[in-house]
Amino acid sequence: xxxxxxxxxxxxxxxxxxFQVPADGPSAYFANLAREYPEGVFRLELAGRQVIFVHDPxxxxxxxxxxxxxxxxxxxxxxxxxxxxxxLFTARSDEPAWGQAHRILMPAFSxxxxxxxxxxxxxxxxxxxxxxxxxxxxxxxxAEDMTRLTLDTISLTGFGHRFNSFDAEELHPFLxxxxxxxxxxxxxxxxxxxxxxxxxxxxRAYRDDIQTxxxxxDEVIRERRAEGRTGGSDLxxxxxxxxxxxxxxxxxxxxxxxxxxTFLIAGHETTSGLLSxxxxxxxxxxxxxxxxxxxxxxxxxxxxxxxYETVMKLEVIPRILDETLRLWSPIPSIGLTAxxxxxxxxRYPVAKGQKISVLLAPLHTHPGAWERPDEFDIDRWLPQRxxxxxxxxxxxxxxxxxxxxxxxxxxxxxxxAIALVLQKFALSDPHSYRMHVKQTLTIKPEGFTVRVRExxxxx
Length: 459
Ligand code: HEM
Known about the structure:
The mean pLDDT is 93. The protein is globular and about 65 Å long. Helix 5 runs parallel beside helix 18 and helix 7 crosses helix 9. Strands 1-2-8-5-3 form a 5-stranded mixed sheet. A 3-stranded antiparallel sheet has the order 4-12-9. It has a two-stranded antiparallel ribbon with strand order 6-7. It has helices at residues 26-35, 57-63, 77-84, 96-105, 111-134, 142-159, 173-189, 193-198, 200-226, 235-241, 253-266, 269-284, 286-299, 308-313, 316-327, 360-364, 383-386, 407-424, and strands at 41-46, 49-54, 69-70, 140-141, 333-338, 342-344, 348-350, 355-359, 425-428, 437-439, 443-445, 449-454. By secondary structure, it is of the alpha+beta class. Protoporphyrin IX containing FE is lined by residues 71, 88-89, 102, 154, 262-263, 266-267, 270-271, 274, 330-331, 334, 396-398, 402-406, 409-410. The site of protoporphyrin IX containing FE has 25 residues, from helix 11, helix 12 and helix 18.
């Protein structure tokens, strides 16, 4: 077949399509644009660089072939690297630090480790429930409280550090600094470098925010060292103690600092988004909510306290989470780059080094791979139906060796939190929330509130 140019909207000289992309919601803009390109691929010129967007599942299968494409550290991740450094998320795959940390930390994410973290996950989830018990009838800000839950959970289980976020009305200074830094990293993606260097005030604020985050991380590491307890099987214990099974090397102090910061960020933003979107979807789908209540009442009758084993027996709630991640993937896209000049779909030429972005929402709702794609249908995730899914039409946790290391952690934490909330509360949404997505590196439903009331027996 003949080669075809990749289609795309016309831009203006130098700036290309940069200013067609709204600063506060690039992912919604890209998703809308994807609908105009049924061939499943289009290109844009952004801040002087061409980016190819892909959402057709067969083309996604090609770009997920790790012998042809790799994860690049370019905008926005190259900006996130200003604070994540060579931590797992923002390390290049060919940097020794990536492989070493990956091998050292894998055991901390095994099923056995999830079981070991469970008591601490439960403790934090119970703090959420206590807060909501005290605030019955009030408007509860869902994304904020889920962020308290997930940040406190990763820091307690991973590093033995207590944020005690539920004790404070304001979000922790670490969270404020992180939010600002992520917004700035996104802004920089749209700027030509000379513009970035002219924005001196923003640059100073950005550096201060990074400093705030690093100070907290140094404090967390200092606490552990002061306890004289370097070993242990949590993330920090492994990093301070364990050697890479392949090279025998240990992680440098600088790298440990980058990993702790990386995990504090990667370990909570996304899971908080997942939990917030899940409650949103449950309130809009009462028949699914009823199924979830039935499951919780069967496995967690009365005031019984969940164990790790109970959470592993849940079956409806995991399908709710799978389907939530399909419709509202907290990470809107993943980036890939071609090792060599290549051709996509037998007809679209792609140059070596070309940046490709896989758009997850359009992929997850692609009509070629999903029936009634916009419908919230948890039965898609019944074991017998899962086998029929297109193998590359669902990537909420990314791809290949650079896929999410925290997947089981996130799902265990989220199953437990939803189960506890439903065991205790009847939920309502008296303001009939209309979805408003806030995007930093991840997306969340901004301004979403619910009200809760303790359930009475047989309700
Ligand atoms: C990587 C999604 C929770 C730690 C990723 C990637 C995605 C993702 C899409 C790949 C990014 C890329 O290709 O650039 C999610 C979602 C989560 C979640 C949707 C929750 C629902 C977590 C948690 C942790 C975590 C709880 C830690 C406890 C990481 C790390 C990486 C990563 C360290 C980088 C892995 C590497 O490249 O070696 N995640 N994540 N994530 N995630 Fe998650």
